[in-house]
Every structure is written in structure tokens, then in C-alpha cells.
């Protein structure tokens, strides 16, 4: 698919990577607008095509008392307000077949979580909305297996699919990015590297996922060098108190420097 097929996307002629970036979950309207405003400012300055990311609900949680959301339609309306306020596209993940039609009323890209990417009915429901479908590679799947997920979207009458690599399980409590998979998956669809989820340390005994945010730039740089089409980065102005995935998020204050470095690397790679 062509990136220009995404409504409201900017800077598509800049020959840059595109960026899916925002908080893990929508916690409030104020936090969503605050984060979006800052990322829009940075991406306009650096000419990076930008899509605001925020989960309207969190279904995959370690414990029953973990934060799951502020209410489905309330969060989706906030995503719509972000889009309208800053004239940018938005992406959110869906977990059930009924989520597809609901979320499609408010956002531009529907994301299939990694644990659910083999759920045929869910992938088909997302594709049938006509929205772009971002297929997150299962932590348990090979890069080659993702061609079947992409084919499900195509067989549903759509060519609007991306693949996002979010790391592969390495033992019980760590993730590894196998950069050999990037050229393989790019044969099937535009490929995104989910930098922050790749640095999760799941299945901790406390029931709260850990992470290695100190390695964000290392992983992101390697992705750009290996020709990923896009990057996925979760960010927050107060990661320590974020209601979901704070342990592996990038502090919002560090985003501009990171993206500045990555744009410079991209220009060097393009020169070759």
C-alpha cells in the first residue's frame, strides 16, 4: 500500500520513515492532547510522517486489577479529538470482532495485537472496514509466517496492510529483535519496528511488565539502518506513573533528540 492512502498524513514526500507514536493507553483527554501536540511539533520540524497512537482499551493485562481503560467510546472520542485538533491520523488496537466497526468510526488505522494476529475473524473484520490494518507479528511467530496474516487482509478485499515487528520471545522474560526478519517481512508489506515493546520484559513475578528503555535508541538505530519503513514508539511525559507499559516507554522529553539522530541516519542510509 501507499502511505499516502492514510488520511491526513503529512510529509510523505520527505523520503523519511513514518512514525506511530503516543501513549500506550488513553488515560485522559488532557494527556492525549499534551502528548500529541509535542509529537506533532517535533515531526513537523523533522518532516516525519506521523500517526498518533493510543489504545482505547487494554485487554491483554497481567492481572485483573491492571488498568484497562477509561471507557471505550470515551477513549475513542478522545482519539477523534486528537485527529481533528492536529489534523493527523490515529491508530488504536482492537481485540474483538465487534471492536473493528466501532473503532473504525473514530480512527484511521486498526491495529491487531501480536497475541491475536492469527485470529482470522478479527483480521478479516478489520480489513472489511476499509481501514489500514497494522498486523503486529506474534512474539511466537516467524517472519515468514506473517505472509499468511497479510494474505488474509488481501483475501478480504483490501491491500491496506502493514506488518509490525515487536520482538520475539527469548526465554520467559525477555524479547529479542531478529533483524534478519525485516527484509523478509518487507516482501509482504511495509514493515514497522515497534521499538518500545521489543524492549519489554514480560511475565515478571510481580505481575507488572518490566522493560529496558535505556536500549531504545540502540534498537531504533538498527531498525533504520536495516530499512524499516516505519517506527512505533510509545512515549509519555511521566512514564513512571503511566497506567500501562511505563517500564519500557520513552520519556517525551527525549523524543526530539532520538528522532533527530534517526533522521540523520536515514539520510545517510538513503545516500547509499
Automatic annotation (TrEMBL):
Subcellular location field: Cytoplasm
Major place of residence: cytoplasm
One of the record's GO molecular function terms: 3-deoxy-8-phosphooctulonate synthase activity
Protein name per its UniProtKB record: 3-deoxy-8-phosphooctulonate synthase
PANTHER family cross-referenced by the UniProt entry: PHOSPHO-2-DEHYDRO-3-DEOXYHEPTONATE ALDOLASE (PTHR21057)
Source organism (scientific name): Pseudotamlana haliotis
Taxonomic lineage: Bacteria, Pseudomonadati, Bacteroidota, Flavobacteriia, Flavobacteriales
Keyword Amino-acid biosynthesis annotated: no
Domain annotation DAHP synthetase I/KDSA: ranges: 8-267
Recorded catalytic activity of this chain's protein: D-arabinose 5-phosphate + phosphoenolpyruvate + H2O = 3-deoxy-alpha-D-manno-2-octulosonate-8-phosphate + phosphate
Similarity comment: Belongs to the KdsA family.
GO biological process: lipopolysaccharide biosynthetic process
Pathway where this protein functions: Bacterial outer membrane biogenesis; lipopolysaccharide biosynthesis; Carbohydrate biosynthesis; 3-deoxy-D-manno-octulosonate biosynthesis; 3-deoxy-D-manno-octulosonate from D-ribulose 5-phosphate: step 2/3
Signal sequence extent: none
Key words, A-Z: Cytoplasm, Transferase
Gene designation per UniProt: kdsA
EC number per UniProt: 2.5.1.55
Highest taxon of source: Bacteria
An example Gene Ontology CC term for this record: cytoplasm
Entry keyword annotation includes Transferase: yes
Amino acid at each position: 500500500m501507499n502511505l499516502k492512502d492514510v488520511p491526513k498524513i503529512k510529509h510523505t514526500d520527505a523520503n523519511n520513515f513514518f512514525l506511530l507514536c503516543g501513549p500506550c493507553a488513553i488515560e485522559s483527554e488532557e494527556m492525549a492532547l499534551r502528548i500529541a501536540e509535542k509529537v506533532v511539533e517535533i515531526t513537523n520540524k523533522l518532516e516525519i510522517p506521523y500517526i498518533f497512537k493510543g489504545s482505547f482499551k487494554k485487554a491483554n493485562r497481567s492481572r485483573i486489577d491492571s488498568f484497562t481503560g477509561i471507557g471505550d467510546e470515551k477513549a475513542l472520542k478522545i482519539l477523534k479529538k486528537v485527529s481533528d485538533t492536529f489534523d493527523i491520523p490515529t491508530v488504536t488496537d482492537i481485540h474483538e470482532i465487534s471492536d473493528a466497526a466501532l473503532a473504525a468510526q473514530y480512527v484511521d488505522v486498526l491495529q491487531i495485537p501480536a497475541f491475536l494476529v492469527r485470529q482470522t475473524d478479527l483480521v478479516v473484520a478489520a480489513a472489511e472496514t476499509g481501514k489500514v490494518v497494522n498486523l503486529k507479528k506474534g512474539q511466537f511467530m516467524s517472519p515468514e509466517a506473517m505472509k499468511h496474516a497479510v494474505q488474509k487482509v488481501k483475501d478480504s478485499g483490501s491491500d491496506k496492510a502493514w506488518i509490525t515487528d515487536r520482538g520475539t520471545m527469548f526465554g520467559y522474560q525477555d524479547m529479542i529483535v531478529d533483524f534478519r526478519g525485516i527484509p523478509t517481512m518487507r516482501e509482504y508489506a511495509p514493515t514497522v519496528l515497534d521499538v518500545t515493546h521489543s524492549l519489554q520484559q514480560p511475565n515478571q513475578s510481580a505481575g507488572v511488565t518490566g522493560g529496558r528503555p535505556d536500549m531504545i535508541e540502540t534498537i531504533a538505530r538498527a531498525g533504520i539502518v536495516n530499512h524499516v519503513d516505519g517506527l512505533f514508539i510509545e512515549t509519555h511525559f511521566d512514564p513512571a506513573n503511566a497506567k500501562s507499559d511505563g517500564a519500557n516507554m520513552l520519556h517525551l522529553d527525549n523524543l526530539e533528540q532520538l528522532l533527530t539522530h534517526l533522521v540523520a541516519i536515514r539520510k545517510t542510509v538513503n545516500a547509499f
